[in-house]
Amino acid sequence: MRFESLKDMIDFAIEKEQEAADFYTEASGQEAFSGSKEMLREFAREELKHKKMLEDMKSKGIDDSVNEYTFKWIPDIRRSDYVDDLTYAKGMGYRDMLMLAMKREEKALKLYNELLSMAEDDLARNFFKVLCQEEAKHKLALETMYDDYMAEMGD
């Protein structure tokens, strides 16, 4: 995948975040149980936060935004590595929804890491590092929720 400009990269990332938010919003509308609806809505809100961050970067200026971003190490507990791909199904259980979301974040992180490896200058590399870190934080949060849930269930 090649981009003509950094603006194209940002637009691509914004589109991906909107697609993810739309997926979770649509799924929440199909759920009968309020807990499932709310969890999916929260996933959508997280994706929209990423989209807003990207839009802010675009309007503020990518140089300044990337330079102001605080990078830190995000551990990878790798739970999603042991999860098969899932397809959303109306009424799926909490555990399966968490696994679905973890896997989606894993794929987003892999995509941004691939794009990072293809970046041709420091600004583009740092931009994709920001995206990687944001996806890694989201993935860690979901994997931690999954671990907590499984511990509650006695697994």
TrEMBL record:
Residues annotated as domain Rubrerythrin diiron-binding: 9-145
Spans traversing the lipid bilayer: none
Alphabetized Pfam families for the sequence: Rubrerythrin (PF02915)
SUPFAM superfamilies assigned: Ferritin-like (SSF47240)
Gene Ontology MF annotations: metal ion binding; oxidoreductase activity
CDD domains: Ferritin_like_AB
PANTHER family per UniProt: BLR7895 PROTEIN (PTHR33531:SF10), RUBRERYTHRIN SUBFAMILY (PTHR33531)
UniProt name for this protein: Rubrerythrin
Organism: Desulfonema ishimotonii
